[in-house]
């Protein structure tokens, strides 16, 4: 519940937030976080037409009535919203973004697995609306990215770099968006191009390791929320920088920080470094 405003001060209007993928893992987490936030209000809930949740109250899974039905109709789902939070699939995010652009609704994009062409389309949409996009909304992961920048600069030669990530059995993209972002940050810090130096799989007689490569390993299993380790393996020592998520709440809280950051902005593409003041 929002605290009552101090006597003589006007209450701030809540941020009106629509959620896409409303019945997904992150959709549920976001609706719960919005309800608990005190400064955000659920203003729309979108899902695919085949979702069994269509027509239900978006907060029914919490045992509450939000008054917002889950809908597949983009017009209805966005009509009351200032910002859409989207954790769905790349093709869904792009369709939602087209509707946001038409209606001048800002967007927070957490979806991962975009192609280069899809990223271009998002950058294009950011000419007309303000967008925060990040493969990981958690504060901890974004601080970890800064640590990796520093470590990679200092360990650019003589250390083999490997990125290991583990996620739940339902995850559909690999490596994770976060692992790829870690790779990009490290490659930039050591003056390499990730497209040239990434190794995504090894099998059979691979030959000795090329020191200029950045390797990726993917684990999928059970209900692992999201673990990422970057290994810098040198001669006589190794450094491991690890982040582990134990709850999706951290991604939802980061998303709401992005919503607040976007308030009053009209255009531009931002990420969590901008939101958290880490740039
Ligand atoms: N940036 C970050 O911090 C984080 C990013 N993610 C990313 O968010 C995305 C969603 O993750 P998660 O919530 O676990 O996934 P879920 O599969 O649990 O939820 C996805 C939701 O989107 C719906 N959906 C699927 N396809 C489409 C489509 N084409 N158009 C519109 N909606 C669609 C699903 O409906 P249905 O189930 O009926 O198919 C479901 O409601 C993933 O890309 C994941 O990597 C996840 C966590 C944190
Ligand atoms: O699908 C997930 O669950 C997650 N996806 C994001 C990613 O691909 O990096 C973020 C987080 O790791 C959870």
UniProtKB/TrEMBL annotation:
A Pfam family recorded for this sequence: DapB_N
Residues annotated as catalytic: 167, 171
Listed EC numbers: 1.17.1.8
InterPro entries assigned: DapB_C, DapB_N, DapB_N_CS, DHDPR_bac, NAD(P)-bd_dom_sf
Record pathway: Amino-acid biosynthesis; L-lysine biosynthesis via DAP pathway; (S)-tetrahydrodipicolinate from L-aspartate: step 4/4
Signal peptide: none
GO BP terms, alphabetized: diaminopimelate biosynthetic process; lysine biosynthetic process via diaminopimelate
UniProt domain Dihydrodipicolinate reductase N-terminal: residue ranges: 16-137
PROSITE patterns: DAPB (PS01298)
Subunit structure of this chain's protein: Homotetramer.
Protein name stated in the entry: 4-hydroxy-tetrahydrodipicolinate reductase
Gene: dapB
């Amino acid at each position: 519940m929002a605290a009552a405003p101090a006597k003589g001060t006007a209450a701030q209007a809540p941020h009106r937030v629509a959620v896409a993928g409303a019945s997904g893992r992150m959709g549920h987490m976001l609706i719960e976080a919005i309800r608990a936030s005190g400064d955000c209000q659920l203003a729309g809930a979108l899902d695919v037409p085949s979702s069994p949740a269509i027509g239900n109250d978006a907060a029914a899974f919490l045992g509450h009535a939000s008054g917002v039905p889950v809908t597949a109709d983009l017009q209805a789902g966005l009509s009351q919203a200032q910002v859409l939070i989207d954790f769905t699939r790349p093709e869904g995010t792009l369709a939602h973004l087209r509707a946001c652009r038409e209606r001048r609704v800002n967007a927070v994009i957490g979806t991962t697995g975009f192609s280069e062409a899809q990223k271009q389309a998002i950058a294009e949409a950011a000419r007309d609306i303000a967008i925060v996009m990040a493969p990981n909304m958690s504060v901890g992961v974004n601080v970890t990215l800064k640590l990796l920048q520093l470590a990679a600069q200092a360990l650019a030669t003589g250390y083999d770099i490997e990125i290991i990530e583990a996620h739940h059995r339902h995850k559909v993209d690999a490596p994770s968006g976060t692992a790829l972002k870690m790779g990009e940050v490290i490659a930039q810090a050591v003056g390499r191009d990730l497209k040239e130096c990434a190794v995504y799989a090894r099998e059979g007689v691979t030959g000795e390791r090329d020191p200029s490569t950045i390797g990726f390993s993917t684990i999928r299993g059970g209900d692992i929320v999201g673990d990422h380790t970057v290994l810098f393996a040198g001669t006589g020592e190794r450094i491991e920088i690890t982040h582990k998520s134990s709850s999706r709440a951290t991604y939802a809280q980061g998303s709401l920080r992005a919503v607040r950051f976007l308030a009053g902005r009209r255009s531009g593409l931002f990420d969590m470094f901008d939101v958290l003041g880490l740039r």
